[in-house]
Write a sequence for this structure.
């Protein structure tokens, strides 16, 4: 098990190295979605230089239109020249370009909700992927079964806000235009949305690639770290996390990893989770789908069937 940290600031790089983090994820100015930190090419190159033998992975997880394929190819060539160690992607055009150029990236297939079975991942392993980010929406036990039966490395999210929905449409722009309001809609503007009939809200923002919705609740796996030993990578999402508190959070997770290795986790788990809660009592943490199977309410199924009949 290794921590993979989504960076949200360059300020504390050396702190993370001292803590023991070996894998870092950043976004680029192009073809990156839902990134906590966007860097120019020269900044990525400098980060790679500063981190030395640590791994720098770049998000290339946008869905790419055909008219941008040539630009995507140039982007990937640039990342290869920089010496980026890996990329997280979901568009198979990315995989095809990387295979054609024989780039030496670690190819992490990250389609958000789609990695839910071992057969698909084993096939994709023959096509050039090295790792897979397993869907958050399936229970932990199912994730373990997949991890034990695939020929690629597996990654799961263990902390932070979670992907909820994405549309390439400019939903916020169109909405505020319709109601004649001029409201900032970027990730730093802290907009939230709440559906009717639910008691929780979600983060929502818009960028050049469309509209993104993420949970306001944050996933937390700090108190169940000993259950993750079948996975290669444990991902910490830093979107909407204070950059200074993130250092403390990462330190707690690294301490947990060490204690799992030393077989002392059971003695320190309660203290670690207590320290996490003290960092920000206002954050609502949960285990997400770790212990919950997807449930379809019969009323929802009937409504869907009626809608299908009306088409």
């Amino acid at each position: 098990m290794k921590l993979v940290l989504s960076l949200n600031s360059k300020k504390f790089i050396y702190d993370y190295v001292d803590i023991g983090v070996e894998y870092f994820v950043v976004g680029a100015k192009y073809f990156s979605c839902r990134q906590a930190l966007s860097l120019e090419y020269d900044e990525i190159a400098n980060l790679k230089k500063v981190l030395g033998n640590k791994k720098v992975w770049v998000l290339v997880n946008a869905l790419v239109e055909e008219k941008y394929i040539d630009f995507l190819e140039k982007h990937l060539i640039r990342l290869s020249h920089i010496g980026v160690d890996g990329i997280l992607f979901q568009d198979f055009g990315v995989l095809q370009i990387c295979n054609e150029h024989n780039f030496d990236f670690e190819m992490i297939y990250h389609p958000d909700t789609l990695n839910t079975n071992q057969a698909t991942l084993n096939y994709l392993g023959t096509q050039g992927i090295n790792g897979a980010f397993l869907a958050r929406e399936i229970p932990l036990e199912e994730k373990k079964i997949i991890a034990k039966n695939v020929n690629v490395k597996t990654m799961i999210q263990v902390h932070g806000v979670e992907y909820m929905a994405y549309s390439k449409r400019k939903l916020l722009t169109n909405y505020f235009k319709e109601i004649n309001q001029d409201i900032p809609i970027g990730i730093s503007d802290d907009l939230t949305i709440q559906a009717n009939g639910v008691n929780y809200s979600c983060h929502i923002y818009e960028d050049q690639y469309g509209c993104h919705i993420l949970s306001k609740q944050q996933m937390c796996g700090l108190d169940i770290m000993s259950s993750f030993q079948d996975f290669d990578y444990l991902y910490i999402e830093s979107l909407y996390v204070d950059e200074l508190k993130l250092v403390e959070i990462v330190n707690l997770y690294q301490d947990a990893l060490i204690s799992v290795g030393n077989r002392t986790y059971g003695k320190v788990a309660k203290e670690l989770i207590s320290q996490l809660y003290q960092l920000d009592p206002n954050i609502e943490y949960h285990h997400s789908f770790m212990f919950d199977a997807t449930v379809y309410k019969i009323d929802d199924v009937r409504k869907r069937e009626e809608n299908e009949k009306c088409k």
Q: What stands out?
A: The domain at 2-162+217-286 is CATH 3.20.20.70 (TIM Barrel). The longest helix spans residues 243-262. The two ends are 48 Å apart (CA to CA). The chain has two domains: 2-162+217-286, 164-215.
